[in-house]
Amino acid sequence: MQLDIDINGQEAALARLLEEESVLDDDASIKSNYSYFTVRYAPGTRVILSYAKHDKKIGKARRVSGFFAILTHKLDLSAMEAFETYHLRDEQEKYFQQMKDQLSANRQRNWSEEGKTGRLFILFVSMVISSYVRHIWKSTELHAHFTSSLEVLDEMRSIRYIEHKNKARFITPFVGDQVGICQAFGFEVPEGCSPDYASKRTFTHRSGRLHKKRPSSMMIEFIV
């Protein structure tokens, strides 16, 4: 079905180009956009003259359409047994790539079985969160502002939660694209962290001139 859709779409596009006597692009673009047709054009002006179906290429595509191969090494498996064993291999490879690239978990340094189990659990939770971040990045307007989901995380990395002894705890302001990221994820910017927030603290200044600082004894000795 997909092959027929591609052939009909290419034929309709070529018919429109022939009717309008359009100028074709370079040969690489013709081969890529109209792969199931042989296109003739004027050598000098590159105006399309005619087109015809490439029956040999279409027949080959139709023969292999819907089939795939699974290659095993020294395993005595039937076709269905091999399929049940390896049909999730592509998804598994993507998960491994995500763990190695995005989560930097290409090496697992462990000294006990308990530690290995704990790291795998943390890695599993991290993959769930990372997959959700990637889904939001691809399905919202963030895809137009950031080239990858890692850039989204890097943009939020500068935010800090600061806590000093005997002082009120606070979060650094959200600025620029950080506000848009919160909106895409459905998060509310914490109170007092939005760019339009103005501090309610008032400062009192004493009237009159400021007192001049007295020079230190070392400075007085130097002047004398």
In short:
With 224 residues, the protein is mainly alpha-helical. The protein has helices at residues 2-20, 27-33, 55-64, 79-86, 89-101, 113-139, 142-145, 149-156, 177-185, 217-223, and strands spanning 37-41, 48-53, 161-162, 170-171.
Task: Kindly describe this structure.
With 224 residues, the protein is mainly α. It has 3 domains: 2-64, no CATH class; 68-97, no CATH class; 127-197, no CATH class. Helices cover 50% and strands 7% of the residues. The chain is built from 10 helices and 4 strands. The protein has helices at residues 2-20, 27-33, 55-64, 79-86, 89-101, 113-139, 142-145, 149-156, 177-185, 217-223; strands at residues 37-41, 48-53, 161-162, 170-171. The strands form 2 sheets. A two-stranded antiparallel ribbon has the order 1-2. A two-stranded antiparallel ribbon has the order 3-4. The termini are far apart. Residues 217-224 have low confidence and may be disordered.
